[in-house]
Design brief:
Distance between the termini: 26 Å
Bound molecules: glutamic acid
Strand content: 25-35%
Radius of gyration: 15 Å
Structural class: alpha+beta
Order of helices and strands: EHEEHEEEHHHEE
Strand order of the largest sheet: 1-4-2-3
Number of strands: 8
Helix content: 25-40%
Largest sheet: 4 strands, antiparallel
Length: 187
């Protein structure tokens, strides 16, 4: 079991993401990471094998600032716990955090590899990220892309997604796993 979190609003996203991940620590995890979009629309990914403290140390050394981001604590199912396999995973267009298992990841990887996608990690999540990317390249619309990808993904998942050309927005989709969306005073 792991956890995903996301924040978009007026406050510092890193602080919000870390506090969300701390609240999910009880579920157990082996790695942690965040992707944060800065004011110029660039996305910065910081992730590491190990505890949240290790992520915080990385963030202290290489601070990232923004008001929109996604975060993850990972419980590895596909690929060993490692910096590379830690989430978020992404492409030139989007970044994804994932709780759950994509059962048809081998089939999707083979299909996507044949169409030119290169995979950096061993995770099923990267297959999901590239499936969404491929649908996004066709539709140009985040919701349409997630609906199309959901038809291809088999298994259980809660996904948080940010698209580089949709600043300050977080998209989410779930199948089988819980996902809560809430609005507060500042985000
Ligand atoms: N199946 C994914 C992985 O191995 C996500 C596992 C999780 O829920 O943390 O990276």
């Amino acid at each position: 079991m792991c956890g995903i979190t996301g924040y978009t609003g007026k406050s510092d996203a890193v602080a919000r993401l870390l506090s969300g991940l701390r609240a999910l620590e009880y579920r157990g995890y082996d790695s942690a990471g965040v992707a944060v979009m800065d004011a110029q629309g660039a996305v910065h990914v910081v992730k590491t094998k190990g505890r949240l403290r290790a992520l915080e140390e990385r963030l202290e050394k290489c601070p990232v600032h923004g008001r929109c981001g996604i975060g993850h604590t990972r419980w590895a199912t596909h690929g060993a716990p490692s910096d590379v396999n830690a989430h978020p995973h992404g492409t030139d267009r989007l970044y994804v955090v994932h709780n759950g298992i994509i059962e048809n990841d081998r089939e999707l990887r083979a299909e996507l590899s044949a169409r030119g996608y290169n995979f950096l990690s061993e995770t099923d999540t990267e297959a999901a990220a590239c499936t969404i990317d491929s649908a996004y390249a066709e539709t140009g619309d985040p919701v349409a892309a997630l609906c199309a990808a959901a038809k291809r993904l088999r298994g259980s998942y809660a996904l948080g997604v940010i698209f580089l050309d949709h600043p300050n927005e977080i998209y989410a989709v779930r199948e089988g796993n819980p996902l809560i969306v809430a609005e507060g005073g500042d985000g």
